[in-house]
Design goal:
The complex is a heterodimer of chains A (about 400) and B (about 80). Chain A has helices at about 85-90, 115-120, 125-135, 155-160, 170-175, 180-195, 210-220, 230-245, 290-305, 310-315, 380-395, and strands spanning about 1-5, 15-20, 30, 35-40, 45-50, 55-60, 65, 70-75, 200-205, 250-255, 255-260, 265, 270, 275, 280, 310, 320, 340-345, 350-355, 360-370. Chain A is built from eleven helices and 20 strands. Chain A folds into three domains: about 1-90, RNA polymerase II/Efflux pump adaptor protein, barrel-sandwich hybrid domain (OB fold (Dihydrolipoamide Acetyltransferase, E2P)); about 115-175, E3-binding domain (Dihydrolipoamide Transferase); about 180-395, Chloramphenicol acetyltransferase-like domain (Chloramphenicol Acetyltransferase, 2-Layer Sandwich), CATH 3.30.559.10. In chain A, a hairpin with a 2-residue loop joins strand 10 (about 250-255) and strand 11. Mean pLDDT of chain A is about 85; it is low at about 85-120 and about 165-175. With about 400 residues, chain A is α+β, with helices and mostly antiparallel strands. Chain A is about 30% helix and about 25% strand. Chain A starts with a strand and ends in a 5-residue tail after the last helix. Chain B is built from four helices and no strands. Chain B is mainly α and about 80 residues long. Chain B has a single domain (about 5-20, about 25-80), classed as Non-ribosomal Peptide Synthetase Peptidyl Carrier Protein, Chain A, CATH 1.10.1200.10. The chains are: A alpha+beta (about 400), B mainly alpha (about 80). The interface of A and B includes residues 133, 216 and 219 of A. Chain A: Belongs to the 2-oxoacid dehydrogenase family. Chain A: Forms a 24-polypeptide structural core with octahedral symmetry.
Chain lengths: ~400, ~80
């Protein structure tokens, strides 16, 4: 038997409110499964479990606020020899608990997926969720006709055409986040950063022409769904560079540097309505560029709809902020503690540049590093920037 | 599709991307990226939505034609949508 506890989803988190259980007693769970939704200052987070087993008891109730480390549920793990384990395996928790009616029920208008809609979490496609939020419908109250019973855009459209007005969505997970609470979380983390971390700053100008030319050639002839963004190249170059410069990938804890286990790049995502989150892209150095694009697309969509996972909030080993096309030319970042570095890519601008003795127009970006002087020195920081620059000059190798 | 249908399709897609925006105040000649604060991921999602709704290929080189709502309508009409 082991305890599933309230995770720490941020340096200053003391407690979290359990918004929703996604499992019930008797359910089989596997490592990495999302089992609960917890409301934090950063919005609603889907919390994963990190072992295999069977849920034996839900200790915390929905709506309850539980301190970090407090028990949420008891889980029977494979090693347990409790007799109760036998029947549990004999009857693997009925995932579809739809009570089959003895008498023939009148045919529902859309029968098949209804069973899904009654069992725990209702899957809603991101597009459907957005539209539902926009027109004020609770998508989880609809009957899904999409793959595996998920609520699709068409279902929301149908509900709209029928004039469905469900009750206003009650839980925080659908409203995403509370800007005032997120402001508090950012204030606490950034004040701590500037109070505790002796930052030093470096910047380099990087010629993005080779990377952008390679990208344009890659995207040409591909449908929009398969195209990549320049951000994917900068992300991959950063992750590969961190392999060589491990002193920027990790945490300052207990008076010393602790290297990160893996390269989990936190990607800063601005949220509409203010605020930002920097969820982790796990093992970014090992992903191909198209894989990174898929991860990034999914991550941005979930960050903005309030569907991030606990591990994504907890795991970043370094952060990258990319200012985008509407942003400023450069940024001097504030390190997110206990990380020891943040890299910033400025807006890509076309400027005169000297190549082989000739002044030519080139698309450039300002790459900056803010790093913790307790963990590294400027000389090492300069080498990190130089490695990223070299990688971006040979995009075909990324 | 008529021009009005294309316009409505484009607005529906944008509403999904920027749900907080006031589309009543969006002029046909307004710069979409600037007025709606679209980043490159948002814009790619917009292009993807238009592609799926109309079948138009919309190569990257043509993105500049899609900078305004009027531009989107004219471009997609010319592309046979």
């Amino acid at each position: 038997m082991s305890d599933f506890t309230m995770p720490s989803l941020g340096a200053d988190m003391e407690s979290g409110k359990l918004v929703e259980w996604m499992v019930k007693p008797g359910d089989t769970v596997h490592q990495g499964d999302t089992v609960a939704v917890v409301e934090t200052q950063k919005g609603a987070i889907e919390v994963e479990i990190f072992e295999d087993g069977t849920v034996s008891e839900l200790v915390a109730k929905e709506g309850e606020t539980v301190p970090v480390g407090g028990v949420l549920a008891h889980v029977r793990t494979a090693g347990d020899k409790t007799p109760a384990a036998a029947p549990a395996t004999a009857a693997p928790a009925p995932v579809e608990a739809s009570p089959a009616p003895a008498s023939p029920a009148p045919p529902a208008p859309r029968p098949a997926p209804a069973a899904f809609a009654r069992t725990g979490r209702v899957k809603v496609s991101p597009a459907a969720r957005r539209l539902a939020a926009e027109i004020g419908i609770d998508p989880e109250g609809l009957i899904g006709t999409g793959v595996d019973g998920s609520v699709s855009l068409a279902d929301v459209e149908l509900a709209r055409s029928r004039g469905t007005k469900a009750a206003p969505a009650p839980s925080a997970r659908r409203t995403g986040f509370d800007p005032a609470e997120m402001r508090k979380a950012i204030a606490a983390a950034m004040a701590r950063s500037k109070r505790e971390i002796p930052h030093y700053y470096l910047a380099s100008t990087i010629d993005m022409e080779p990377a952008l030319a390679w990208l344009a050639a890659y995207n040409e002839g591909r449908p929009p769904t398969e195209r990549m963004l320049a951000a994917v190249l900068t992300l991959k170059a950063t992750a590969l560079a961190l392999r060589e410069h491990g002193q920027f990938n990790g945490f300052w804890q207990d008076g010393q540097f602790q290297p990160g286990k893996g390269i989990h790049v936190g990607w800063a995502i601005a949220l509409r309505g203010g605020g930002l989150v920097s969820p982790a892209i796990h093992d970014a150095d090992g992903l191909s560029l198209p894989e990174l694009m898929d991860v990034l697309r999914d991550l941005v969509a979930r960050a903005r709809s309030g569907r991030l996972r606990g591990s994504e909030i907890m795991d970043p080993t370094m952060t990258v902020t990319s200012l985008g096309e509407q942003g400023a030319d450069s940024v001097m970042g504030v390190i997110y503690p206990p990380q020891v570095a943040i890299l910033g890519f400025g807006r890509i601008v076309e400027r005169p540049w000297v190549v082989d003795g000739q002044v030519v127009p080139r698309r450039l970006t300002q790459l900056s590093l803010a790093a913790d002087h307790r963990a590294s020195d400027g000389h090492a920081g300069g080498r990190l920037l130089s490695t990223i620059e070299q990688l971006l000059l040979e995009p075909e190798k990324l | 599709m008529t021009k009005d249908e294309i316009r409505k399709t484009a607005l529906d897609i944008l509403a999904g991307i920027a749900p907080e925006a006031d589309f009543a105040a969006l002029g046909d000649e307004d710069e979409l990226r600037e007025v709606l604060d679209l980043d490159s991921m948002d814009f790619l999602n917009f292009v993807t939505g238009l592609h799926e709704a109309t079948g138009a290929e919309i190569p990257e080189a043509d993105y500049r034609d899609l900078s305004t709502l009027q531009g989107v309508v004219d471009y997609l009409k010319a592309a046979g949508a």
